[in-house]
Specification:
By secondary structure, the chain is mainly α. The chain has four helices and no strands.
Amino acid sequence: MQPEDLQLLVTRTMPFGKYKGRLIADLPGNYLNWFAREGFPPGEIGRLLALMQEIDHNGLSDLLRPLRQPQAGRRNG
C-alpha cells in the first residue's frame, strides 16, 4: 500500500460494472468480497479494490472519514 492510496479510495470512482461511477470507498462489502473470491482486476484499480476490501472486512472504514471531510467541508471566502 502507498500512503496516497487511502486518499484515492475516497476520490477514485469505479470505472466499470454494476457500481460504475461510485467512489471505491462507497462500494458495498459483498461486491468487494466477490472480487476477493473471483480475483481483483490488474493494475491500480485492482490494488485499490483489494485495499478497500481489506479495510471493509476488518471494520476499518471509519478511518477514511477524515479524508472525506476536506472536500465536503471546504468553503470559498
